[in-house]
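hey all, quick one before standup. I had two proteins in the batch that finished overnight and I want to keep them in one place so we stop losing track of which output belongs to which input. First protein below, input sequence then structure tokens straight from the run.
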Amino acid sequence: MHNNISQEKKVLSVSAFAAVAFAVTGIVLGLITGSQIILFDGLYSLISVALSVFSVLATSFIGKKDYKRYPFGKDIIEPLVIILKYSIILILVVASFAGALTSILKGGRDVAIGYALLYSGIGSFACLAAYLYLNAKVKKSGSGLVKAEASQWFMDTLVSFAVLFGFVIASLIDNYSHYTGLVPYVDPIMMIIISLYFLKLPLSGIRSAAREVLEMTPSGKLPNNIKKYVRNMEIKYDMKESFVRIAKVGKTLWVEIDFVVQDSKKIKTVADQDKLRQELSDYIKTYNKNEWLTVSFTNNRKWAV
């Protein structure tokens, strides 16, 4: 667990340093070129820096053991941080959309296309490299914070390639077309398109993290698979009924199972109960090694409902 936390902090720190470089470059060139979308890219990276640092601090806090004050762990911190991160990104996207719409109504924006092409060309592939690096780490760590960080870089990659494509079109229109009056509209139109696309990712991220904060049943096949396995255990050990509650918060999968034993001849001792617990734990660990399993046995149904 400690090694996972250390690796997670290292990955998030790399992301923060990379974001600093993109933030400074994007903001400076955005102001020089007059491009709203490049400025957005820089501001997005600047916010990513602050959020990455916040993620590192949150990871450090989660990694410090304090069972007296936090007997059930600190997993709730992870989805709360993710909600905060995506909420701030959502505010930036909405503000950028409003700014781009205002620019169109005022006749567009004049942009230094040469510098813009250079920035977007280098930035596109640099952002892609950062995203691929973080995405590979997500598969190894299973960290929600690293996943959110990878999502941020994925969004930045989309922006950069969209900017590159848009400025290539603007350059072609400016140099090889009679419709040069359209060039000032390219930058704000790109910003509107990107903003509309970007709305989906933060909203989806907030929704997913909110499910964890509210301790809702996880989506997907996992809950039904576990319930089906529990039902098989119920039949195998000749018990009357079972109740299963499942939630995922941060990296931890919480599973509470209550068996109504009644006249079962196979569950008579604590050793019998522990044998069943071990079987359930082994099965659940195939889905998530960070499981918090509680298995209770009762003769009276009212203690299980």
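OK second protein, same deal, sequence then tokens:
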Amino acid sequence: MKQEVYKPVYLFLSKFLSDFIKFFWKLFVWRKFNQPTNLDCISSIVVLEYHCIGDVILITPALNIIRNNFPKASITLVTNQSVYELAQAAAIADKVVSISIPWIHNIGSPQKWISFCKQIISLRKSNFNLGFNFKGDFRDLGLLCWINPDIRVGFNATGGDFFLTHVYPFPFEKHQVERAIHLLYMFGLQTDYQSPTLSLPTAVNCQQDHKTHIIIHGGAAHPFRMWPDNHWLKLIELLQPHASVTVVEVSETLELCNLVKEQLSNTKKFKGSLLEFSQQLKIQSLLIGLDSMAVHLAVAVGVPAIALFGSQNPGLTKPYGSNGYVITPPSICKHKKTNWRLCKDCMNEIDPHTVYDTAMKICSQ
């Protein structure tokens, strides 16, 4: 089966390193895997998910399942600073801990490394009974082992199964939401499939009227996921006679916002924190975005979202639920790609008129 989650060369190197470490691990550290456990005694649980904002949103169904199975346990979510305020406001865990991970957030200074180590040692002192990691990343599993919950549950996608007490094969073909739920099912919890849902307060100054409101978030973590600025401008031009359009200003969309200001002066602009953005979303009729956190956040707060995908498989990370829509290029990728999964040329092939027609159809419903 062809996997589309991890870069193949990184996957190979990670498993090679894992096998090398595993040899010495067995010599000096002895662990019994898959021991019978009394789940009735679970009182404290830690969940690691700190890679991206969208990743945190997509595991909210899994967090709800953990809560339902362990109603008396305290759940701690270890995540990144970008999503910390939102996770706190949505109360998706009893405690949210913000952490900067060296291999994710490019920590270079010794002081930040020392701060990171102190945070992990503090988490270790919490004496968690149970820990989950849904990523299957070799480094994440090592960190979970360092925090040292009594029971450590995760996938072995990139190696590191010796860090876990309960290890399961990584379901590469599943959507990211279903992947996390599958891990809980394999562990033996009662599960049900559901869409990510975030309960958030509406800002006082956010008042809905009877207009059609469409918000555009053109930012993405990778440049090859971006849609050309001229396509966004054409789409906004098509939408403006029928809707009030707002463009979100983030670091990746500064040039787009400047062009909109010059050429389409009637377009609104939004700039604010992630929590403020989520509150702004709640008064919108539709969000149009990319393969990024914005579409997941929109669906989670109950707003329809259109996600534009290039050559990457939308079945793995599309906005999950009945309010999520996907637009892909008109043909299969035949370009010479410089990225193993993403294609800038495929994104360029998505026609603004196609996006406009889909948006109008959704809004009319």
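Flagging for whoever picks this up: The radius of gyration is 22 Å. The first helix runs from residue 8 to 28.
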